[in-house]
Design goal:
Layout: H1 6-24, E1 29-30, E2 40-45, H2 52-67, E3 72-76, H3 79-88, H4 92-100, E4 108-112, E5 115-118, E6 132-142, E7 151-160, H5 163-178, H6 181-187, E8 191-192, E9 203-204, H7 206-225, E10 229-230, E11 236-238, H8 239-245, H9 247-250, E12 259-261, E13 264-268, H10 273-280, E14 292-301, E15 317-327, H11 332-349, E16 355-360, H12 370-386, E17 392-394, E18 404-410, E19 416-424, H13 428-431, E20 436-437, E21 443-444, E22 447-456, H14 457-468, E23 481-485, H15 491-503, E24 508-510, H16 517-526, E25 531-535, H17 537-542, E26 544-549, E27 553-559, H18 560-572
Parallel strand pairs: 10-14, 16-17, 23-24, 23-25
Antiparallel strand pairs: 1-2, 2-7, 3-4, 4-5, 6-7, 8-9, 11-13, 12-13, 14-15, 15-22, 16-18, 18-19, 19-22, 20-21, 25-26, 26-27
Length: 576
């Protein structure tokens, strides 16, 4: 078992993979091969078009090189000698990377067997220290990520200190593949994308739309209960709005092109905040009105490169569960603590229990007075401490306009997701000249906090699908129970039970097909229905159902009232 840090093992594995590729394909030209969060990759330019079968041979060569325990030998060269060596080796991409190294900085190389790479390191002592490796997939990648450049071939792999850790990782990857929201979204008929509509623009199907309606309704009710007021704002705004906010200066590449209306430029909104500020600015405000907690399920549009789009997790049109808190400096500490508590409550209602905050502080370049920054950071830290949470601090990691707390949650298979954000903003209140009349009768600048609990509803839904593996809990499931008549003789009774359960507020369907009971049960299980209700001759005579719970298994024969009571308990308590 290797004792080196995982990123060092993986970076070294990338070099060994490149050495294996060089041995098998001597004409290969190399770009970069970094370690990543889950493994490593290397980009190649070569005549041979790689296919998945090639990975087996490359991996076989890697294991031979690892077995030889080849040393990673570091050496440095003057720039002129480094250029000469790379030109003679026919490595144009490495020459471009060499040009990126500032004058006066050391130019380092690592040699592994016959393979020499321009690299800062660090690396393991020899290839035998790498541990266990596995090559995973092949993809295309533009040089430097620029679509105008040549498409290179990228090989992804992973490495771990031991074979046991690698096997566990592969098992987790297989489990993640089973939970892939894109695959389940299609299987369960929840959502789709259409080239006719456009990439990254989601079409919500009836079942997916119902789940969205359910968690939107929950979101709205909880916000009203927690002292928020809801807003609705337009999808477009005049250019002057985005000039004032700074979006046209700093975020134009993420915005869609303007449209001309009445000889004025309008833009579809990439953010909701300027609209909320305009509501605030609609009249003079007093300190007695503050704090104001305004929330909106506001749909925004942002341009993402096509290569960055990923199912529901990265889209071009999405609905943010946006909120802005506008308050006095004296109120900010209590407001932040309440927002953090509320965020934790919402996520726990959906079954997420492992939640960790990350606090990002003032960067080198920042707007707003240092005293405001200190007060804001202190308020964020106190809120975290008050709730007894273990917080990781990212010194200097805040945005130029304010510090923030990001919440990350772990899902059912241990993956961490970036979710809620609590973000101070010292920039927009200045740009829009936001003020309130204080107790002294003078104008003061309010504090403003941006807050999103779910992030975007699309991304949130994608996370939920993977968290539950498509098996939504009773309160969210679009179909809570399915009646399965044994034969046509019980069809009328099944329809009677369906009507009775619907009148009690449950979402129930009857499988009216002439299929066998086994086929009906199989289809209902594949659809992840929480309750399967079989009705045969005996059940029809007794006015009952033979119930099976997805969560608890076989429940035996239940009366309709017993069943309804059990189902109601699950819904009201949001059992997951």
């Amino acid at each position: 078992m290797s004792n080196y840090p995982l990123d060092t093992i993986r970076h070294s594995a990338a070099h060994v993979m490149a050495a294996a590729v060089q041995k098998l394909y001597p004409d290969a030209k190399f770009d970069i091969g970094p370690a990543t969060e889950n493994g490593f990759y290397y980009d190649f330019d070569m005549e041979h078009r790689l296919v998945n079968e090639d990975l087996k041979e490359i991996e076989k060569q890697m294991k031979k090189l690892i077995g030889r325990k080849l040393p990673f030998e570091h050496f440095e060269l003057p720039r002129a000698e480094a250029e000469k060596m790379l030109k003679e080796a026919g490595q144009p991409y490495k020459l471009e990377r060499l040009a990126d190294i500032p004058e006066g900085e050391k130019i380092g190389f690592y040699k592994t067997g016959d393979f020499v790479d321009l690299c800062r390191g660090p690396h393991v002592a020899n290839s035998g220290d790498i541990g266990a490796v596995k090559l995973l997939s092949i993809a295309g990648s533009y040089f430097r990520g620029d679509e105008k450049n040549k498409m290179l071939q990228r090989i992804y792999g992973t490495a771990f200190a031991s074979e046991e850790e690698l096997k566990e990782h592969i098992r987790m990857q297989e489990e993640a593949a089973k939970r892939d929201h894109r695959k389940l979204g299609q299987e369960l008929d929840l959502f789709s994308f259409s080239e006719n509509v456009g990439p990254g623009l989601v079409l919500w199907h009836p079942k997916g739309a119902f789940i969205r309606h359910t968690f939107e309704t929950f979101w709205k009710e909880e916000h009203y209960r927690n002292g928020y007021q809801l807003l609705y704002t337009p999808h477009i705004g005049q250019s002057i709005l985005w000039e004032t906010s700074g979006h046209l200066d700093f975020y134009r590449e993420g915005m869609y092109s303007s449209m001309q209306i009445d000889e004025k430029d309008y833009y579809v909104k990439p953010m909701n905040c300027p609209f909320h500020i305009e509501v605030y600015q609609s009249r003079l405000r007093s300190y007695r009105e503050l704090p104001l907690r305004w929330a909106e399920l506001g749909t925004v549009y942002r341009y993402e490169k096509s290569g960055a789009l990923h199912g529901l997790l990265r889209v071009r049109g999405f609905t943010q569960d946006d909120s802005h808190i506008i308050c006095t400096p004296e109120q900010i500490e209590d407001e932040i603590a309440e927002v953090l508590r509320f965020s934790l409550y919402i996520w726990k209602c959906f079954g997420f229990t492992e939640i960790k905050p990350y606090l990002s502080t003032r960067p080198a370049k920042a707007v707003g007075e240092p005293e405001r920054w200190e007060k804001a950071i202190t308020s964020l830290q106190k809120a975290v401490d008050k709730l007894g949470l273990d917080c990781e601090v990212d010194e200097g990691g805040g945005a130029f306009y304010g510090p923030k707390i990001d919440l990350k949650v772990k899902d059912a298979i241990g993956r961490e997701w970036q979710t809620a954000t609590i973000q101070f903003d010292f920039n927009l209140p200045e740009r829009f000249d936001m003020t309130y009349i204080g107790e002294d009768g003078k104008k003061h600048r309010p504090y403003m906090v941006h807050r999103a609990l779910m992030g975007s509803l699309e991304r949130f839904f994608g996370i939920l699908i993977e968290q539950y593996a498509g098996a939504f809990p009773m309160w969210l499931a679009p179909e809570q129970a399915r009646l399965l008549p044994v034969s046509e003789k019980q069809l009328d009774y099944a329809k009677q039970v369906e009507l009775e359960l619907r009148r009690k507020g449950f979402r129930v369907e009857t499988d009216v097909r002439a299929s066998s009971l086994g086929a009906k049960i199989k289809d209902a299980r594949n659809a992840r229905i929480p309750y399967l209700l079989v009705v045969g001759e005996r059940e029809a005579e007794e006015g009952a159902v033979a119930a099976r719970s997805r969560r608890e298994g076989e429940l035996g024969t239940l009366s309709i009232e017993q069943l309804a009571e059990k189902m109601r308990f699950e819904v009201e308590n949001k059992i997951v």
